């Protein structure tokens, strides 16, 4: 085993992230794209067509404190590999003899020693490999957090855009209510109207004003959430584009999307790295029966003998210092401890296997669920946009005709207009839900649908002419100026 290869791999991975090119993970491998492989969150962000949304996502990825903390933790874990791969520090010893032992060649005054522990070399390799896999798992975990953050920001953005759209529709409807109430007041003053129409319209005006306040409250909560994700004050404005009022259906192939998710989702890569770490720890635990060594050298300072016998006849080697070599070996006798370590490693590996399977099931469930729900959401949108809106417009046109003919009153006209208002609001809600579903699907796959050629294209906006904001000073309804010509209020 080449000990430095895993360490270099971890250093490259944690330094440059996923910015490098890998034939196993680029579009060249799966036939989708020839671009260098990037982190899934970055791939999804780059595929966002809305410039305001893309800028918001990129800012959030850059400023989010949770992501910064995760990357710091991953970088710290990467520093573990060179620590566990190094030999233990050597030991230097010194012994000064207070009562020097007398030897044939003289008394020993000082002994110096130097020793170096030497673990079984494969243990160092396995410790380094386990540390590398742990750091890689943390890195992929942070990438999974980034991908989830992209999806969450997109969801909040579409919710804010829906609130903007709803506010415009509700404000226009409120203008119509005020004009209807003025007409009802005038009819009541002339004796042809009833107080019921006036009171009901006034109550509806209050409800519409309350709805606008509720929309403002909802926007404040969403804005605060977005700003917390991008580390800004809660009241900071969130720039957003216009609400796409019409889209095309995305062609979805569940099998293809599931395969792409399995190759792209960081959670699966993190689980795979966790399993590799567990395998390495198991091998390391089984190697506990291998002995460790300790080698060293010693030096003993010996002074010459100065006794009477040595002065009369000095012994050979009188005062010569002593050099020695020392060695030791550990005795792995604690079988119970080693057995417990192996069992711990086996349990950790079992946990890693189940965790990887759980991650696979989660990914498959997310992609499968969205692949089934999005076509249903599209059918609901089509029913609302192509049928309900058209029917509500026709009903309003019929009410206008009856009002002009005198067979219907102001309340009948208001009811028809209210139905159209609710239909428009429901249709906008369905559009927002479909856009959010597409964002969740891209987050579940880990790729932009634009890269796959399955991105829904935007169509020209289809707006109802009945609730379109009118210029100031003009009637909000084509029959608003014919109030005096209408029939008698019921």
Explain this structure.
There is one protein chain. With 490 residues, the protein is α+β, with helices and mostly antiparallel strands. It has one domain (4-86, 119-292, 330-485): Outer membrane efflux proteins (OEP). It has helices at residues 4-16, 27-30, 40-46, 51-63, 65-78, 80-84, 121-189, 195-229, 254-264, 266-286, 308-312, 335-405, 410-445, and strands spanning 91-96, 102-103, 106-118, 293-302, 322-329. Strands 1, 2, 3, 4 and 5 form a 5-stranded antiparallel sheet that branches. Helix 7 runs antiparallel to helix 10 (266-286). The termini are far apart. Residues 1-36, 457-463 and 468-490 have low confidence and may be disordered.
Give the CATH topology.
Outer membrane efflux proteins (OEP)
- Rounded mean pLDDT is 82
Q: Could you tell me the radius of gyration in angstroms?
A: 39 Å
CATH architecture: Up-down Bundle
Considering the protein shown, what is the CATH homologous superfamily?
Outer membrane efflux proteins (OEP)
- Major sheet: 5 strands, antiparallel
Broad structural category: alpha+beta
Number of domains: 1
């Amino acid at each position: 085993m080449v000990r430095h290869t895993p360490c270099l791999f971890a250093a490259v991975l944690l330094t440059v992230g996923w910015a490098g090119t890998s034939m196993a993970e680029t579009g060249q491998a799966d036939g989708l794209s020839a671009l260098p492989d990037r982190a899934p969150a970055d791939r999804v962000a780059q595929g966002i067509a809305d410039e305001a949304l893309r800028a918001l996502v990129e800012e959030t990825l850059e400023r989010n404190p949770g992501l910064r903390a995760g990357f710091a933790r991953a970088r710290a874990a990467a520093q573990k590999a060179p620590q566990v791969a190094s030999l233990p520090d050597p030991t230097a010893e010194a012994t000064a003899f207070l009562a020097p032992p007398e030897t044939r060649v003289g008394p020993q005054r000082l002994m110096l020693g130097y020793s170096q522990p030497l673990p079984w070399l494969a243990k160092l390799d396995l410790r380094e490999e386990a540390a590398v896999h742990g750091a890689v798992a943390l890195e992929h975990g942070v990438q999974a957090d980034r991908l989830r953050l992209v999806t969450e920001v997109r969801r909040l953005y579409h919710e804010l855009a829906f609130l903007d759209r709803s506010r415009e529709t509700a404000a226009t409807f409120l203008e119509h209510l005020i004009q209807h109430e003025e007409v009802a007041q005038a009819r009541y003053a002339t004796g042809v109207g009833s107080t019921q129409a006036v009171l009901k319209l006034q109550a509806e005006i209050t409800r519409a004003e309350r709805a606008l306040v509720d929309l403002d409250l909802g926007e404040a909560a969403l804005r605060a959430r977005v700003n917390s994700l991008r580390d800004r004050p809660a009241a900071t404005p969130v720039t957003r584009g216009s609400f796409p009022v019409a889209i095309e259906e995305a062609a979805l192939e569940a099998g293809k999307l599931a395969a792409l998710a399995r190759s792209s989702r960081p959670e699966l890569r993190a689980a795979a790295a966790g399993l590799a770490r567990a395998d390495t720890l198991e091998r390391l635990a089984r190697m506990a029966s291998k002995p460790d060594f300790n080698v060293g050298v010693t030096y003993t300072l010996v002074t010459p003998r100065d006794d009477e016998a040595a002065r009369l006849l000095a012994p050979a080697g009188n005062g010569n210092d002593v050099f020695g070599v020392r060695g030791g070996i550990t005795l792995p006798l604690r079988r119970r401890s080693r057995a417990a370590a192996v069992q711990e490693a086996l349990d950790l590996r079992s946990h890693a296997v189940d965790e990887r399977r759980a991650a696979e099931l989660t990914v498959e469930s997310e992609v499968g669920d969205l692949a089934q729900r999005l076509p249903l959401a599209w059918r609901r949108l089509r029913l609302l946009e192509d049928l309900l809106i058209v029917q509500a417009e026709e009903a309003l046109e019929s009410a206008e005709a009856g009002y002009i003919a005198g067979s219907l009153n102001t309340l009948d006209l208001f009811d028809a207009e209210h139905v159209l208002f609710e239909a428009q609001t429901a249709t906008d809600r369905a559009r927002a839900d479909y856009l959010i579903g597409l964002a969740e699907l891209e987050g579940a796959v880990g790729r932009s649908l634009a890269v796959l050629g399955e991105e829904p294209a935007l169509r020209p906006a289809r707006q109802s002419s009945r609730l379109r904001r009118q210029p100031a000073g003009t009637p909000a309804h084509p029959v608003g100026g014919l109030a005096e010509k209408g029939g008698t209020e019921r």
